[in-house]
Prior knowledge:
- By secondary structure, the protein is of the alpha/beta class.
- The chain is built from 13 helices and 11 strands.
- The protein is globular and about 60 Å long.
Amino acid sequence: MGGANRALLAPDSFKGTLPATAVAAALALGFEEAGWEVDPCPLADGGEGTGEALVDALGGDWRQVEAHDPLGRPIRASFALVGDRRTAVVETAAASGLQLVAPRERDPEVATSAGTGELLLAAAQSAATVLVGVGGTATVDGGAGAIAAIRRGGGLGDVRLICLCDVRTPWEDAARTFGPQKGAGEAMVGRLTARMDRMAAELPRDPRGRPMTGAAGGLAGGLWASLDAELVAGAAFVLDAARFDERAERASLVVTGEGRLDATTLEGKVVAEVARRCRRLRLPVHAVAGALADDPGLRDRIGLDSVHPARAADDLQAVARSLAMCHMPR
């Protein structure tokens, strides 16, 4: 490990507030003001910002296509072609995202993942492998809408599907875990759970009991069961694509972060994966977060040297300046 006075800046997005690139850029300004070298490394876990993080890591460009939102309304949505342009990245949130539905409209019994299926069809026309960032959807339909849209479009052919999952939640827990945040009350959660159970029994293979099949309201499990999609941990995949370990070897500290630091951070999120790798490298790792859970032991459980609240770019710059001064060689 080397790189005195070099900071590796490896945050996730602050959901709905700042993209990971903006978080890294604000941190970079603070370290540069203190005379440090910086290595911005925006990350994602399969949810919001996954396409942007992979384009940043691998190079690529964006394509826009016609699709439909979770309530069936026409929209324009994008996917990315990365690396050699034979690999596409589709974010489920681009066409099936919760942000596309106003709070008063949210109804996961009605919301459909069909738009994600339309994006997958478009991506499959240009790529041999499609990476599906599963997270941030308005749906709990087990991918039924996406699967139906793909069948209507003639299927995906020989395309390899890889789901980058932001959680390890199994299929049978999807409605209970994610339904309330998508507008489901207690009674609706019960109905959604029963619907998911019926669907599981009818799929080509049963997704129940398998980690990550509940991601994106079961969309990951539906693609796994019907289209032989591979399920992988999104954060680890993106860190590997960004050559995180190699870049960390040249740094003297790492700063990571996310919009809210809480118990779910330990369930496959970027901050936990960054901290795990930094512990192995014996490298100091600090986190910034827009909000912090009231959990005194959380920092130690994740394995962070410090945690700092920061809601805006100015806050991030101030934290970076402070960390830079604290880690200056004596």
